[in-house]
Amino acid sequence: MENLNKQFYNYLWAYILVALSGCLGNVVDGIIVGNLISEDGVSAINLSKPIIQFIYTLQLLIGAGGGMLVGFALGHDDKPKARRLFTRALGLSVGLGVVISLAGGLIWPDAIARFLCNDERILPLARDYMRVMLLGNPMFLLMWGLSTMVGVDGWPKLVSVAVIIDNVVNLSLDIVFIQWLGWGIAGSSAATVVGHVVGVAILLFFWLRWSKRRLSLNFAPKGILSDWSRIVSQGAPLAIASICLTLLLFVANKMVLSSLGRTGIFAFAVCMNLLQIYNLYLAGTRQMLQTLGSTLVGQGDWEGFRLVLRKAFRFITQTMLVTCMVVWIFPAAIARLFGADEPGFINESVHALRVLAIGFMFFCYIDVLMVVYKLFGHHGMALYISLALSLTVIPVLWIMARVAPNQIWFSYPIAYAIEVLSLFILHKVVFGTFRIWNMKADELT
Predict the structure, then answer these.
(1) For the chain, domain boundaries
(2) Contact 23/280 with Cβ under 8 angstroms?
(3) C-beta atoms surrounding 86 within 10 Å
(4) Which of 78-87, 166-175, 271-280, 431-440 has the lowest average pLDDT?
(5) Looking at residue 54, what DSSP letter applies?
(6) pLDDT 10s digits, 377-390
């Protein structure tokens, strides 16, 4: 158990560093845009989030799904199978990335921008930001996919270093591209793409020279379609949750913009940056569970996995409570940090931040539970969470936008509370208990 404790913290803090770097990259990116361009620049980035979330969905479908299968294979010491699945996942990610780059970045950038944004003042900023992001999306998929596989292969610290340098490059080039070269908001997305190029280069350079590396390319053509099917099937619950989140981001942006205007969409953008802070703990915990957890499940070490689960839930609880307290004490300062200087923008942000600081806690617990059910092989529960995590919010948003538009922010905690209650009831019906980590292995597989 002492060795497992060491593994837990090695993986957790490595992925926390990865998430920290990504979190700071996104948050500081918004701060730079808000102060160098305008509040509308921050809103334009938020209106572009459905595209970024859609690209991330492909990573979950292929990269995370393939990563779990590779982890299972390595846990069984089946290196040929692990290498074959690694190659299949990597090739599929790059191929889809190129297709999206050509279709979205070259053929339909204007149509996509107008579909996501109907405010004429914000539209030009959103279009410039989205186009560069779509053109560079293969680098997003490659960076996220390689990070998952290198971590599964047993070198999470390299992932940490690569992602940190990726974001340092991104933030440094933000100022160069936006202010010095005068590229405007397009410079922000260009800096993100260049940062990913550097991150991919670091991962490949050091990982390919690592003496303990177990994964390598295996281009055997036999069974390629069946392997792709298995990868997609494994990643489907996570991807479904992400595509539902993409839909939620789109609907929420539309409803907030129509109900509260420019002040509302700015406040929502600030709250989405707050979600990045929560994602710092969530992404680190989720990635640790997918990597270390899949290996323990592959080895049949259920006692070790239960220990990892208890420690994971304790960790995210403590960190989320601290974040929530900070947001409640300093909401106006957070709004000003993103360039807000008018009372309307600040007041709406204060109201939204305090409500959603609580709502996002429910989101994090539910998201981790989905990973747990998937690792235990209970695909029905994982699929239910994937669908409900975001789709529960949409009807509540619709009702609040019409009944009490000024209180639309309460849609999130209300919806997540409903889902927690439904999940509790459903779990009791299926398993007769809610203590997941005390259940027997044969009840879960």
Answers:
(1) 2-444
(2) yes
(3) 27
(4) 431-440
(5) H
(6) 777 788 788 788 78
